[in-house]
Amino acid sequence: MKLTTHHRTARAAAESWREELLGLSHQLHADPELSYQEHRSAAALAGLAERGGFAVERGVAGLPTAFTGVCGSGDLVIGVCAEYDALPGIGHACGHNVNGTAALGAALALGAVADDLGITVKLLGTPAEEDGGGKVDMIEHGLFDEVAVAMMVHANDADTVGNSSLAIGSWNLTYIGRPAHAAAAPWEGRNALDALTVAQTALGLLRQQLPPESRVHGIVTDGGQAANVIPARSAARYEVRSPSMESLRTLQDRVRACFEAGALATGTELHMEAHGHDFADLRQDTTVAELYAGAAEALGRTVGRAPQRTGSTDMGNVSHLLPTIHPMIGYDTGGARQHTYEFAAAGTSAGADRAVLDGAVAMAWTGVALAADAGHRERLLAAVGRRAAERERAAGDGGGPHP
């Protein structure tokens, strides 16, 4: 790719923040915070954005750990999504310290050329990707309405573009039975743990008929309090994944029937409630993804283009709303995959540090390419206009601005 003055200015801006960005990545890694509890992480990212000249608003979408930062005033709004939550027990085993600081670096780099390119850079601090779905909350509060294109990079063991993800829904389940003495009068009880066992047996049998790439998995969070008391309560959390939102709904109906069978067989009551938001499957914009791949390759990275289906992400919900990319940016993890102790341990390596800076520059250069090309710009702005018209129609029909 041919580098312009805007490319060089954006890269120089990212490099000027190198020490602060890498220090922040290491800080997040050493102080992992769980979903919706990322107070120190969000404050650190927002504070550095503020130092970089961004107008920061904290606590957006009713979420104490969500924020936005805006720089520039152009009609083309380029959104960069920062993730920073960690996993219980194993910290930043999904690399969100890399994700979040690369996003911040990209925003700072684009901010340096925002006025020249006629763009607005919007940094979106999105909590709870691992558990809950902060991006969905922010969509529902209109924080993506004016965004023309959204991007982020995700830590991985190799660079790839064009990946998709599985749609996912999660439930909290509780069975309520009746306690009884397990030896003296077990027949007087209604065994809530047996209800969960029946449901798990039904799920085990269902799995042999699951469509390809569909998944059902979960944990038991309460199985009773004493071995000599018939359990009056059991609880679990289960997740259902499928290649699309449509197939997810179908599968959820079948899985729900398995849980209802447990209650029916044991005479217990079943209570089910959604845990967080459902995540949609990820649909990346191929044109923007290829621009990113070219930028990353210009930085000396090797980018794979064999699309794979990864886990699940609330960036999928963003991708159903507007052009989105979610490329993987890789570094040596010793062969470890995400959500492992070994992957977490690699999160402050030299390779991870390079991923922060390269991811920032590659995203910034992608933004430059979109803003500088009249065709790209027109396509993105036209889509924003169509979405605005759809919201107006929905509001006129009584459906509200954010159905």
Automatic annotation (TrEMBL):
Family matches, as CDD domains: M20_ACY1L2-like
SUPFAM superfamilies per record: Bacterial exopeptidase dimerisation domain, Zn-dependent exopeptidases
Signal peptide: none
Organism domain of life: Bacteria
Pfam families per the UniProt record, alphabetical: M20_dimer (PF07687), Peptidase_M20 (PF01546)
All copies of domain Peptidase M20 dimerisation, residue ranges: 168-262
InterPro entries: Amidohydrolase (IPR017439), Bact_exopeptidase_dim_dom (IPR036264), Peptidase_M20 (IPR002933), Peptidase_M20/M20A_hydrolases (IPR052030), Peptidase_M20_dimer (IPR011650), Xaa-Arg_dipeptidase (IPR017144)
PANTHER family per the UniProt record, alphabetical: PEPTIDASE M20, XAA-ARG DIPEPTIDASE
Family recorded in the similarity comment: Belongs to the peptidase M20A family.
Protein name: Peptidase M20 domain-containing protein 2
